[in-house]
Hints:
By secondary structure, this protein is an all-alpha fold. The protein has helices at 3-6, 11-30, 36-43, 47-53, 57-78, 86-103, 105-108, 117-138, 148-169, 176-189. The chain has 2 domains: 1-55, Arc Repressor Mutant, subunit A (Orthogonal Bundle), CATH 1.10.10; 61-189, Tetracycline Repressor, domain 2 (Orthogonal Bundle).
Amino acid sequence: MSEVAARPLRADAERTVRTIMEAAERTLGRNPAATMEDIAAAAGVARTTVHRRFATREALIAAMATWATQQLADAVDAARPESSPPLVALYQATANVLQVKISWGFSMNSAFAQGSESERIHAGVVERCDQLFRRTQEIGILRADVDPVWARRVYYALIHEVCQDVSNTGTADADTDALATQLIDTLLHGVGTPATQL
């Protein structure tokens, strides 16, 4: 565990850490082989400042993954999935999650180390999403014959594709509300015509 995660930081130290992580996200997003020196330059701080906060490049990337995953969990929380009407919660969570995943694409795509804080936080997000999909099924939004876990996996795949598309087109100011609407419409209604029969 990094020193950053081990104990609370003063406000100025927190700002420095956030500045370093934001610079690292931009820098590594453009060039995954970027060095700590590259990241320090992008953050506008000395290389020693980066090393004082993060002993290694791997520690920095792990801290970024944990921070971004916590933002993802907070994005789901903000949609109030347990208390809002399920469809409202699904739309809001989707828009919130897209905002995080688009802004922190490199960090969100980093592999979680087994037993890491990121893995623990992400498991909680998955559990809450599964609960939300069960709620959508209970009120008839999701068909009774659809496995809610399968629906959640399809939903995750759609989120991934939307984020990849935004990344590939370089649209930094993507309209996440419009993207969420399109994604949920695709999830719930598909892309076939009403007359389509299997």
